[in-house]
Amino acid sequence: MRPTLLGLACWLFAVGGLCAESPVPKNHDRAIAKQPTYTSKAPLYVLLTFGPNADKSVWLVLDKSKRDAVTYDVLYVDRNADGDLTATANRLMGTSNGDATAFTLPEFRDPATGAVHKDFRVRASGKDKPDVMVSLRWQGKAKMGGGYPPDPGEYMKGSPRPETAPVVWFQGDGPFRFQRWYGGQLTIGAADELKVFLGQLGSGPSSFCAFQEHVLPDGEAVQATLVYHDKDGKERRESYDLKERC
Amino acid sequence: MLYHGPVRVPMDARQGKAIVRVELAKESQFRSLATDIEVELVKEKAK
Hints:
The structure holds 2 protein chains of 2 kinds.
Chain A: H1 3-16, E1 44-50, E2 56-63, E3 74-77, E4 91-93, E5 95-97, E6 100-109, E7 116-125, E8 131-137, E9 143-148, E10 167-170, E11 177-181, E12 185-187, E13 191-200, E14 208-211, E15 222-229, E16 235-242, E17 244-245
Chain B: E1 3-8, E2 16-24, E3 35-42
Antiparallel strand pairs in B: 2-3
Protein backbone atom coordinates (compact mmCIF):
# COMPACT_ATOMS: atom_id res chain seq x y z
CA MET A 1 0.00 0.00 0.00
CA ARG A 2 1.34 3.40 -0.89
CA PRO A 3 1.95 5.85 1.95
CA THR A 4 -0.87 8.16 0.84
CA LEU A 5 -3.38 5.34 0.84
CA LEU A 6 -2.09 4.11 4.16
CA GLY A 7 -2.55 7.59 5.58
CA LEU A 8 -6.09 7.79 4.32
CA ALA A 9 -6.91 4.35 5.70
CA CYS A 10 -5.48 5.27 9.11
CA TRP A 11 -7.41 8.50 9.16
CA LEU A 12 -10.65 6.81 8.19
CA PHE A 13 -10.06 4.28 10.96
CA ALA A 14 -9.17 6.99 13.47
CA VAL A 15 -12.32 9.00 12.88
CA GLY A 16 -14.34 5.88 12.55
CA GLY A 17 -15.08 4.43 15.93
CA LEU A 18 -17.83 1.86 15.49
CA CYS A 19 -19.08 2.18 11.96
CA ALA A 20 -21.39 0.18 9.80
CA GLU A 21 -20.03 -2.48 7.56
CA SER A 22 -22.10 -5.09 5.87
CA PRO A 23 -22.43 -8.14 8.12
CA VAL A 24 -22.63 -10.23 4.98
CA PRO A 25 -19.46 -12.29 5.33
CA LYS A 26 -16.93 -12.08 2.53
CA ASN A 27 -16.78 -15.87 2.60
CA HIS A 28 -20.56 -16.23 2.63
CA ASP A 29 -21.62 -19.83 2.11
CA ARG A 30 -22.43 -20.17 -1.58
CA ALA A 31 -23.01 -23.88 -1.79
CA ILE A 32 -26.05 -24.95 -3.81
CA ALA A 33 -27.08 -28.47 -2.86
CA LYS A 34 -29.05 -29.29 -5.96
CA GLN A 35 -29.60 -27.43 -9.19
CA PRO A 36 -31.87 -28.17 -12.14
CA THR A 37 -30.56 -28.51 -15.66
CA TYR A 38 -30.79 -24.98 -16.94
CA THR A 39 -32.04 -24.20 -20.43
CA SER A 40 -30.07 -21.01 -20.80
CA LYS A 41 -26.39 -21.23 -21.66
CA ALA A 42 -25.79 -18.51 -19.10
CA PRO A 43 -28.07 -18.71 -16.04
CA LEU A 44 -27.67 -15.71 -13.74
CA TYR A 45 -27.25 -15.98 -9.98
CA VAL A 46 -28.27 -13.63 -7.17
CA LEU A 47 -28.09 -14.53 -3.49
CA LEU A 48 -30.55 -13.18 -0.94
CA THR A 49 -29.74 -13.41 2.71
CA PHE A 50 -31.99 -13.08 5.75
CA GLY A 51 -31.67 -12.87 9.51
CA PRO A 52 -30.01 -10.41 11.91
CA ASN A 53 -26.66 -12.00 11.11
CA ALA A 54 -27.33 -12.41 7.40
CA ASP A 55 -26.81 -16.13 7.68
CA LYS A 56 -29.82 -17.65 5.92
CA SER A 57 -29.35 -17.87 2.17
CA VAL A 58 -31.91 -18.00 -0.60
CA TRP A 59 -30.64 -18.47 -4.14
CA LEU A 60 -32.29 -16.90 -7.13
CA VAL A 61 -31.33 -18.16 -10.57
CA LEU A 62 -32.63 -16.57 -13.76
CA ASP A 63 -33.08 -18.99 -16.63
CA LYS A 64 -34.86 -19.14 -19.98
CA SER A 65 -37.83 -21.29 -21.03
CA LYS A 66 -36.25 -21.86 -24.46
CA ARG A 67 -32.66 -21.88 -25.51
CA ASP A 68 -33.27 -19.02 -27.94
CA ALA A 69 -35.63 -17.00 -25.72
CA VAL A 70 -34.89 -13.29 -25.89
CA THR A 71 -35.34 -12.56 -22.20
CA TYR A 72 -34.88 -14.44 -18.95
CA ASP A 73 -38.43 -15.62 -18.32
CA VAL A 74 -37.86 -18.38 -15.73
CA LEU A 75 -36.77 -17.87 -12.14
CA TYR A 76 -35.70 -20.50 -9.64
CA VAL A 77 -36.20 -19.44 -6.02
CA ASP A 78 -34.94 -21.54 -3.12
CA ARG A 79 -38.10 -20.80 -1.18
CA ASN A 80 -37.33 -22.89 1.88
CA ALA A 81 -33.60 -22.10 1.87
CA ASP A 82 -32.52 -25.73 1.80
CA GLY A 83 -30.25 -25.27 -1.21
CA ASP A 84 -32.39 -27.50 -3.42
CA LEU A 85 -33.60 -25.60 -6.46
CA THR A 86 -35.17 -28.58 -8.17
CA ALA A 87 -38.50 -28.64 -6.32
CA THR A 88 -41.42 -27.84 -8.62
CA ALA A 89 -42.63 -24.98 -6.44
CA ASN A 90 -39.27 -23.29 -6.80
CA ARG A 91 -39.68 -22.70 -10.54
CA LEU A 92 -41.56 -19.53 -11.45
CA MET A 93 -42.62 -18.37 -14.90
CA GLY A 94 -42.40 -14.64 -15.43
CA THR A 95 -44.74 -12.16 -16.97
CA SER A 96 -43.02 -10.20 -19.70
CA ASN A 97 -43.60 -6.65 -20.78
CA GLY A 98 -41.18 -5.65 -23.50
CA ASP A 99 -37.65 -6.37 -22.28
CA ALA A 100 -38.75 -6.61 -18.65
CA THR A 101 -39.96 -9.74 -16.91
CA ALA A 102 -41.53 -9.87 -13.46
CA PHE A 103 -41.79 -12.88 -11.16
CA THR A 104 -44.09 -12.71 -8.19
CA LEU A 105 -45.08 -14.61 -5.09
CA PRO A 106 -47.88 -13.32 -2.88
CA GLU A 107 -46.00 -14.38 0.25
CA PHE A 108 -42.46 -15.30 1.16
CA ARG A 109 -41.59 -16.94 4.45
CA ASP A 110 -38.43 -15.57 6.03
CA PRO A 111 -36.09 -18.56 6.45
CA ALA A 112 -34.40 -16.98 9.46
CA THR A 113 -37.38 -15.86 11.52
CA GLY A 114 -40.45 -17.51 10.01
CA ALA A 115 -42.05 -14.09 9.49
CA VAL A 116 -44.18 -13.76 6.38
CA HIS A 117 -43.29 -11.02 3.93
CA LYS A 118 -45.78 -10.01 1.26
CA ASP A 119 -45.55 -9.18 -2.44
CA PHE A 120 -42.23 -10.86 -3.20
CA ARG A 121 -41.16 -9.68 -6.63
CA VAL A 122 -38.13 -10.08 -8.86
CA ARG A 123 -37.85 -7.88 -11.92
CA ALA A 124 -35.33 -8.51 -14.68
CA SER A 125 -35.02 -5.64 -17.17
CA GLY A 126 -33.05 -6.08 -20.36
CA LYS A 127 -32.00 -8.96 -22.56
CA ASP A 128 -28.52 -10.45 -22.17
CA LYS A 129 -27.41 -8.84 -18.91
CA PRO A 130 -30.62 -7.66 -17.30
CA ASP A 131 -30.81 -5.31 -14.35
CA VAL A 132 -32.26 -7.24 -11.43
CA MET A 133 -34.36 -5.72 -8.65
CA VAL A 134 -35.81 -7.80 -5.80
CA SER A 135 -38.53 -6.39 -3.60
CA LEU A 136 -40.93 -7.45 -0.88
CA ARG A 137 -43.19 -5.89 1.70
CA TRP A 138 -41.44 -6.53 5.01
CA GLN A 139 -43.87 -8.37 7.30
CA GLY A 140 -46.65 -6.99 5.12
CA LYS A 141 -45.74 -3.39 5.94
CA ALA A 142 -42.96 -1.28 4.47
CA LYS A 143 -41.72 -2.12 0.99
CA MET A 144 -38.01 -2.86 0.56
CA GLY A 145 -36.08 -3.31 -2.64
CA GLY A 146 -32.59 -4.68 -3.26
CA GLY A 147 -30.28 -3.86 -6.15
CA TYR A 148 -29.50 -0.16 -5.77
CA PRO A 149 -26.18 1.35 -6.84
CA PRO A 150 -24.67 4.54 -5.39
CA ASP A 151 -24.73 6.13 -8.83
CA PRO A 152 -27.49 5.86 -11.41
CA GLY A 153 -27.22 3.60 -14.39
CA GLU A 154 -25.54 0.62 -12.79
CA TYR A 155 -28.24 -1.43 -11.14
CA MET A 156 -27.58 -4.94 -9.88
CA LYS A 157 -26.70 -7.65 -12.39
CA GLY A 158 -26.98 -11.37 -11.88
CA SER A 159 -23.69 -13.22 -12.05
CA PRO A 160 -22.98 -16.17 -14.37
CA ARG A 161 -21.26 -17.91 -11.43
CA PRO A 162 -22.50 -18.48 -7.86
CA GLU A 163 -19.06 -17.55 -6.50
CA THR A 164 -19.39 -13.99 -7.73
CA ALA A 165 -23.12 -13.47 -7.27
CA PRO A 166 -24.19 -10.23 -5.58
CA VAL A 167 -25.65 -10.70 -2.10
CA VAL A 168 -28.72 -8.70 -1.04
CA TRP A 169 -29.51 -8.61 2.66
CA PHE A 170 -33.18 -8.24 3.57
CA GLN A 171 -33.44 -7.11 7.17
CA GLY A 172 -36.26 -4.69 7.88
CA ASP A 173 -35.99 -4.72 11.66
CA GLY A 174 -32.76 -2.75 11.86
CA PRO A 175 -30.33 -1.52 12.85
CA PHE A 176 -30.16 0.23 9.50
CA ARG A 177 -27.33 1.48 7.33
CA PHE A 178 -27.15 4.06 4.57
CA GLN A 179 -25.94 4.43 1.02
CA ARG A 180 -25.52 7.63 -0.96
CA TRP A 181 -27.35 8.32 -4.20
CA TYR A 182 -25.21 10.58 -6.39
CA GLY A 183 -23.14 12.97 -4.25
CA GLY A 184 -19.77 11.27 -4.68
CA GLN A 185 -18.29 14.74 -5.13
CA LEU A 186 -19.04 17.78 -2.98
CA THR A 187 -18.00 21.27 -3.98
CA ILE A 188 -15.92 23.33 -1.57
CA GLY A 189 -17.72 26.53 -0.67
CA ALA A 190 -21.03 25.35 -2.11
CA ALA A 191 -24.12 23.66 -0.74
CA ASP A 192 -24.57 20.44 -2.68
CA GLU A 193 -27.53 18.18 -2.13
CA LEU A 194 -26.68 14.91 -0.39
CA LYS A 195 -29.19 12.09 -0.83
CA VAL A 196 -29.12 8.79 1.03
CA PHE A 197 -31.01 5.52 1.03
CA LEU A 198 -32.00 3.90 4.31
CA GLY A 199 -31.72 0.12 4.47
CA GLN A 200 -29.04 -2.56 4.49
CA LEU A 201 -25.67 -3.05 2.87
CA GLY A 202 -25.16 -6.17 0.83
CA SER A 203 -22.07 -7.57 -0.84
CA GLY A 204 -21.04 -6.94 -4.42
CA PRO A 205 -21.85 -4.11 -6.78
CA SER A 206 -25.25 -2.44 -6.54
CA SER A 207 -26.50 -4.67 -3.76
CA PHE A 208 -27.97 -2.11 -1.36
CA CYS A 209 -31.43 -3.01 -0.08
CA ALA A 210 -33.44 0.16 0.57
CA PHE A 211 -36.80 1.02 1.98
CA GLN A 212 -38.94 2.07 -0.96
CA GLU A 213 -41.34 3.88 1.33
CA HIS A 214 -40.60 6.41 4.03
CA VAL A 215 -40.47 4.71 7.38
CA LEU A 216 -39.17 7.58 9.50
CA PRO A 217 -41.88 9.71 11.09
CA ASP A 218 -42.63 13.06 9.47
CA GLY A 219 -40.13 15.64 10.59
CA GLU A 220 -37.42 13.18 11.59
CA ALA A 221 -34.18 14.03 9.82
CA VAL A 222 -31.23 11.85 8.98
CA GLN A 223 -28.07 13.23 10.55
CA ALA A 224 -24.94 13.75 8.47
CA THR A 225 -21.51 14.81 9.68
CA LEU A 226 -18.84 15.86 7.20
CA VAL A 227 -15.40 14.90 8.48
CA TYR A 228 -12.70 16.69 6.52
CA HIS A 229 -9.30 18.34 6.80
CA ASP A 230 -8.80 22.07 6.56
CA LYS A 231 -5.94 23.70 4.67
CA ASP A 232 -3.68 23.40 7.74
CA GLY A 233 -4.33 19.66 7.86
CA LYS A 234 -6.50 19.87 10.96
CA GLU A 235 -9.52 17.59 11.18
CA ARG A 236 -12.83 19.42 11.18
CA ARG A 237 -16.44 18.35 11.43
CA GLU A 238 -19.64 19.97 10.23
CA SER A 239 -23.10 18.60 10.96
CA TYR A 240 -26.22 18.75 8.85
CA ASP A 241 -29.80 17.53 9.06
CA LEU A 242 -31.11 15.81 5.95
CA LYS A 243 -34.70 16.89 6.44
CA GLU A 244 -36.07 16.51 2.95
CA ARG A 245 -37.44 13.33 1.44
CA CYS A 246 -38.34 12.24 -2.04
CA MET B 1 -37.07 6.64 -1.27
CA LEU B 2 -34.41 9.11 -0.31
CA TYR B 3 -33.60 11.39 2.58
CA HIS B 4 -31.69 14.48 1.55
CA GLY B 5 -30.59 18.00 2.28
CA PRO B 6 -27.88 20.54 1.48
CA VAL B 7 -24.34 19.93 2.68
CA ARG B 8 -22.32 23.15 2.62
CA VAL B 9 -18.63 22.39 2.50
CA PRO B 10 -16.62 25.09 4.33
CA MET B 11 -14.30 27.25 2.26
CA ASP B 12 -11.28 26.17 4.29
CA ALA B 13 -11.72 22.49 3.39
CA ARG B 14 -8.81 20.83 1.69
CA GLN B 15 -9.46 19.14 -1.63
CA GLY B 16 -9.51 15.37 -1.69
CA LYS B 17 -11.08 12.49 0.18
CA ALA B 18 -13.42 13.08 3.10
CA ILE B 19 -16.22 11.16 4.71
CA VAL B 20 -19.82 11.89 5.52
CA ARG B 21 -20.97 9.93 8.53
CA VAL B 22 -24.70 9.25 8.34
CA GLU B 23 -26.91 8.02 11.16
CA LEU B 24 -30.28 8.43 12.82
CA ALA B 25 -30.71 10.57 15.91
CA LYS B 26 -30.20 8.76 19.22
CA GLU B 27 -33.81 9.47 20.17
CA SER B 28 -35.15 7.91 16.96
CA GLN B 29 -37.51 4.98 17.41
CA PHE B 30 -35.38 3.18 14.80
CA ARG B 31 -31.86 1.94 15.33
CA SER B 32 -29.04 2.68 12.94
CA LEU B 33 -25.33 2.10 12.69
CA ALA B 34 -23.28 5.11 11.66
CA THR B 35 -22.35 4.62 8.03
CA ASP B 36 -19.29 6.32 6.58
CA ILE B 37 -19.79 7.44 3.01
CA GLU B 38 -16.60 8.37 1.19
CA VAL B 39 -16.80 11.57 -0.82
CA GLU B 40 -14.35 13.71 -2.71
CA LEU B 41 -14.16 17.41 -1.99
CA VAL B 42 -13.51 19.38 -5.16
CA LYS B 43 -13.21 23.01 -6.19
CA GLU B 44 -15.41 22.36 -9.16
CA LYS B 45 -17.38 19.29 -10.12
CA ALA B 46 -16.35 17.30 -13.16
CA LYS B 47 -18.76 17.88 -16.02
